Each structure stands twice: as C-alpha cells, then as structure tokens.
Amino acid sequence: MTTVEDALLTRRSCRAFLPTPVPRAEVERLLALAARSASNSNCQPWQVHVLTGAAKRALAEDLLRAHDAGRREAGEFDYQPCTDRWPEPFRSRRRGFGEGLYRDALGIPAGDSARRLEHHRRNYDFFGAPVGMILTVSRKPLLGALVDAGLFLQALMLAARGAGLHTCAQASLIDFHPVLRRHVSVPDDQVIVCGVALGLADDGHRLGAHRTAREPVSSFASFYGSEVGALT
Ligand SMILES: Cc1cc2nc3c(=O)[nH]c(=O)nc-3n(C[C@H](O)[C@H](O)[C@H](O)COP(=O)(O)O)c2cc1C
After folding, report:
1. In the prediction, which pLDDT does 81 show?
2. 166 lines ligand 1 (CB under 6 A)
3. What pLDDT score does 231 carry?
4. 220 inside domain
5. Domain span at residue 132?
6. Disulfide-capable partner of 72 in 90, 103, 161, 175 (CB 3.0 to 4.6 Å)?
7. Residue 189: predicted pLDDT
8. For residue 13, what is the domain's CATH number?
9. C-beta 80 within 6 A of ligand 1
C-alpha cells in the first residue's frame, strides 16, 4: 500500500519508460482517481485524450517530423515567456535544473546543443511511454481552469505512483499544438495545457537516479500567530 507521503516522495518526472503496456482499465481507474481533485465550484473543467498503440505512434511520428522541420508554433498560451529575462530566484533555479538534467544526469556539456536537442526531442515520443495523454481545459474562465488542471495533473501523477507507474508532464508538446489538434478532437473552447507520459519507469536508464532539489519550507512559508509553538 503506497501512502500519500510515499507517492509524493517517489514522484519524479520520468524521462525513460519501458514499452510495457498499461491496461485501459488501469488508465481509466487512475483518471477516475484524479477526477476526485478539487475544482473551483466543482466545475471539473478538464478533458483528457488518451493515446496508446497505433494512435500514439502516429501522433509521435507527426510530432517528431514537425520538431525536426522546426515547425514550432507560439503556444496557445505561453508557459515560459522570455526565460532569459526571468527574475531571480527563478532564473537560477531554471539553470540549476538544466545543469542537473543535461550535464550531471545525462553527461551532456552546456555547449553541446545538438545532444541536448536530441534529448529534448524524446519529449515527442513521450519518452518511450506506452501511454501518451493530452490534458485540455476550458478556455473560459482560463485562470481558474488552469489552477484546477494543475490539481488534476498532480492527483494523476500521485495516483500513478500508487499503481507503481511513473509520469512526466510535458508542456513542450504545446509547441506543436496544431499537430496535437489533428490527432485528437479538441473543441475550440478548450486550450491544451500539456501532455502527460504514463508507464513503467526504465530503472536501468541513467536518468533513473536523477532527482531534483527543493527549497526549504523556511524559504517559502511565513507563519503568523502563536497558538502552536515552533518545534525545537
Ligand atoms: C506543467 C508542467 C510541464 C512540464 N513540461 C515538461 C516537458 O515538456 N518536458 C520535460 O522533460 N519535463 C517537463 N516538466 C517536468 C519539470 O521539469 C519537473 O517537474 C521539474 O523539473 C521538477 O522535477 P520533478 O518533477 O522530477 O520533481 C513539466 C512539469 C510541469 C508541472
């Protein structure tokens, strides 16, 4: 039995999956669990498109073709505008994440943009996962729907851990949203939030040991009131 704490501590963005299929009933069970998430006034604005087998392969082929041809499009909304002008501390954290993944875990130095791109390209095959999902939400009201989508996404990732599976959220897919829209039926009143890869982790892959750091609670939490004393 996985505890919530175990699921939180063992969830990571998995970027190397085994091809072992995940039964459809299991994917449906995980989605039903994720749908228990809170949402503003219980509006449940999420939609999920699940691709496996030939459907996933066809999408991946088209995404890789579009990627290789440089047909990146402005996103439906911009996740990461002007990353080179991000304020601190986000800029340093982003750099630290990149160094941890590319230099330390994959052994690709900063100057080797060809090999870095080759790794990034694997997003478009869902890192080899047998299940590729596309998460969309209602365009109106967008901000609230995006908060709700985040809760759904986290719940899905934790539910996957409860089943011994791993996930990776993938905003990189929306760079090719016209391709996604050709493969799945997304109504005009929905925006594509991200992709999600789902499957069994390939623990033998060199990325299997890659973990990201977190800032301490004292860096982001402020406590007010004196009813409960500080732990010593
Ligand atoms: C909404 C969202 C989109 C993301 N998009 C990508 C992506 O396109 N490709 C990727 O490799 N990782 C992606 N990630 C994973 C983040 O890089 C990762 O969550 C972060 O570095 C923390 O690492 P961890 O998930 O292993 O704890 C995304 C995460 C989120 C929440």
Report:
1. 81
2. no
3. 60
4. no
5. 4-81+126-210
6. 175
7. 92
8. 3.40.109.10
9. no
